[in-house]
Amino acid sequence: MYTDTPEKLLLENKAWSQEVSAKDPDFFKNLATDQCPNFLWIGCSDSRVPAETVVNAQPGEIFVHRNIANQVIATDFNCLSVVQYAIAVLQVKHIIVCGHYGCGGVKAALQQQKSNLLITNKWLMHIKDIYRLHQDELEVLESEEKIDRLIELNIIEQVYRLAYTSIVQSAWKHGHKPTVHGWVYGLENGLIKELIKLDHNSPIHKIYQYTD
Ligand code: CO
Question: Ligand 1 centre from 106 Cα, in Å?
Answer without folding.
Answer: 7
